[in-house]
Amino acid sequence: MSRFARVLLDQSARKPLDYRIPAELDSRLKPGSRVRVPLRTRVVLATVVAVLDESDARGVRDVAALLNDDALVRPALMRLALWMADYYCCPEEIALRAVLPVVIRKAELTHKQQLFVALARPPDEQERRELERRAPRQLDVIRRLERSGEPVELAELGGLRAAAKSLEKRGLVRIELERIARDPEGEYLPSQDLALNPEQAAALRVVCGAIDDPAGAKPILLHGVTGSGKTEVYLQGLRHALAAGKTALVLVPEISLTPQAVERFKSRFSGIQSRIAVLHSHLSEGERHDEWHKIHSGGARIVIGARSAIFAPLENLGLIVVDEEHENSYKQEDAPRYHARDVAVYRAAIENCAIVLGSATPSLESYHNAKTGKYRLLEMPSRIDDRTMPLIRVVDLRLQNRRKGQPQVLSAMLCAAIERRLAVGQQTILFLNRRGYSSALLCLACGHVAHCPNCSVALTYHRDDERIRCHLCGHSERAPKACPACRDPGIRQAGYGTQKVEEAVRKVFPAARVARMDADSMARKGGYRETLDRFQAHKIDILVGTQMIAKGLHFPNVTLVGIVNADIGLHMADFRAGERTFQLLTQVAGRAGRGETEGEVLVQTFTPAHPSIQHARHHDFAGFWEHESAFRRAFGHPPFQRFVLLTVRGVQAETALFTAQTLARRLREAAGDITVGEPAPAPLARVKGEHRFHLALRGPSAVRMSRMVKSALAKLTLPREVRVAVDVDALQLL
Ligand code: ADP
Ligand code: ZN
After folding, report:
1. Which of 232, 235, 262, 383 is the best mutation target for the ligand 1 pocket, counting ligand atoms within 8 Å of the beta carbon and taking the most?
2. How many structural domains are present in the chain?
3. How far is the CA of 415 from the centre of ligand 1 (A)?
């Protein structure tokens, strides 16, 4: 009796197919194996998802070949991928690509091993002369190695590869499998474990308990204010996991933006430097491939990385840390649209390991899970050494405007505060969250913003038809010419960008050294690091930037943080706008006063009474949570209801809209306790020539909504050129 392999084809995102397993492969073929299978007249690559005793498929053909005896996708990760496909409503093959990236699949074909050429010893004078005369190409290789100062990839030598091999015979170079970096341990000063304060010690005890007995532990939410020493708790937790012979995984939001954090991990474990893998987006394909195999073969004990590192093929996991768990960059915006934090929680359950989610401003979702007992909440409410939290003051821009008549970038109060810092040689950070472009209408006189009566999110201004609309429920109305609240004609789109701020700063403080840091100014590789180093060395007095500078940075000489316009993020057509503003204000404020001198934060706003601003001002997370969760509950927003956002796009607006309407109708037929909204133009109504429509679903269970959408889509024949994207637990509502 032969058995069957159910496989996913690499090349297509369609349903899995069944193939018969030939007798000679039966004992070797497992779920996770990579195989070649016949498809019509070709032979294609595929991954085995399951081995079955029978198949009801007709015309089943044989598996053609097994690629590798070592199953490339481990059972736990295979389970994780299949869960993602179900939960995030995407084809299984698409989910599997997260777990087994295309670079790894490509390389397995050629079995190409990366070889490195290293200088074994420098040639002496006589050898050098001889090479020069008899083998100039070999001398070229030597020179190349001397210039680079480190091993060079054999493939990179191109036409000089043969010369390198001859040099190996002479004993002048070594050709080896690994790039042995120069004195890797020497790059970081080793750091010692710090003596913990009582709050940290209590948190660490819980973390260690979870590592020792993961089955009896819940995911841990570590809520510690900025500067409370969360990282030290992670570090000592990692040490505990390693000591127990286990491995550990640390997720950080964006690795290129968190060099300081990565360094702290690397330096603490400098003794096992070569067994730490850092996965970041700047790795070349070859490096990515090597790191993956190093982890897969058990060569790494600790993996540090951004979002996709959650799929690192570590075995024997003891601890997963998700730092800054509230960060939106953990959510992937292309299929599979997963949230690395939530995947981490599921992976921890599958792997039976401890998990710690840490933040000074936990997401409402995670805090809700803690409140309802799904997670265990640990609080660290005070800063290390009882340093005070920075003093936050609110500047009312409405008053400023009435005086000057024109919207001002820098208020008199902020200018005076910067002036004082310049006088005593302290540094300033000016922050502007510039993302609000297709934004709300804001009255410059009274601060009024139009809100949707059904959803209580800001209505988005659409210039093409002069209307303001809610894209969650579809409500729309004429854009007012004057403020509905105070009749002032000064109602206009909120927002200006960091460039304008930089310009204003240079004008007011011509002698100050100013730098700007945002996606535009930092496009050059390494520019970010360089600017931070200059800021650290106090070669910059005032740093202007976007959220890039809001996170995790530690500059003791920064005593003033100015938030130029707190409202920009606040009036987005997004029910998380208040939460994001609270988080950003708290995180940015946390950059001030990390040294001996107390910090000051000035928040400029048109809506000084807004709860997000007031609670951030008083460092009052609990108060914010009370307020925000009442609002979310009342309007049925997450975390009280789950949220799925469908985006239907197409070149023809009518066709796309019609598809969205058909889909909405079909979904309503099966909806039950799920609310299906009206299709409405997305805030970004046109992108790259395509019209975009949103359709929002809310209900008590994400997975049920996801399955419902999957089956509705399977029954629907989409018009050509119309695409539907499904985003479960969507964060991006544009
Ligand atoms: P968080 O991540 O909570 O914002 P950090 O881990 O960055 O806080 O800690 C803030 C500062 O306090 C860091 O410079 C860190 O080295 C220091 N620190 C942390 N724990 C201790 C401790 N137990 N004793 C002394 N200093 C500490
Ligand atoms: Zn609405």
Report:
1. 232
2. 5
3. 32
pLDDT tens figures, 243-258: 999 999 999 987 666 6
Residue 383 has pLDDT above 80, yes or no: yes
Q: Are residues 263 and 328 in the same domain?
A: yes
Cα 613 to middle of ligand 1, angstroms: 26
By three-state DSSP, how is residue 333 classified? coil
* Total-model pTM: 0.82
In a domain, 376, yes or no: yes
User: Which atom of ligand 1 lies closest to the CA of 590?
Assistant: 4
Instruction: Give ion ligand 2 contacts, CB < 5 A.
Output: 452, 454-455, 470, 472-473, 475
Give residue 196 CA to ligand 1 midpoint distance, Å.
Answer: 9
Same domain, 137 and 255: no
CA of 194 to the centre of ligand 1 (A): 9
Q: Which residues line ligand 1 (CB under 6 A)?
A: 194-197, 200, 224, 226-232, 384
Is there a single domain that holds both residue 314 and residue 338? Answer: yes
Range of the domain at 520: 391-437+496-631
Q: Which atom of ligand 1 is nearest to the CA of 196?
A: 23
Question: Alpha-carbon distance 632 to 131, whole Å?
Answer: 75
Same domain membership, residue 359 and residue 231: yes
**Which CATH number belongs to the domain containing residue 280 in this structure?**
3.40.50.300
Q: With 60 as the cut, is the pLDDT of residue 112 above it?
A: no
For residue 259, whether the previous peptide bond is cis, meaning omega lies within 30 degrees of 0, is no
Would 419 be classed as within a structural domain?
yes
Compute the mean pLDDT over every residue in the chain, rounded to the nearest whole number. Answer: 86
Q: Token digits for 248?
A: 């550990």
Q: How far, in Å, is the centroid of ligand 1 from the Cα of 200?
A: 10
The answer to the question of residue 103 being in a domain is: no
CA of 652 to the centre of ligand 2 (A): 25
pLDDT in tens, 631-674: 999 999 999 999 999 999 999 999 999 999 999 999 999 888 89
Which residue has the least CA distance to atom 5 on ligand 1? 229
Compute the distance between CA of residue 369 and CA of residue 680 in angstroms, rounded to an integer: 31
213 and 343 co-located in one domain = yes
The b/e string for 348-385 (b: 16+ C-beta within 10 A; e otherwise) is beebebbbbbbbbbbbbbbbbbbeeeebbbbbbebbbe
Atom of ligand 1 nearest to the CA of 384: 12
Closest ligand by atom to 468 CA? 2
Task: Give yes or no: residues 290 and 328 share one domain.
Answer: yes
Cβ atoms of 698 and 645 within 8 Å: the answer is no
Give strand ranges (E) for 552-674: 558-563, 600-605, 642-650
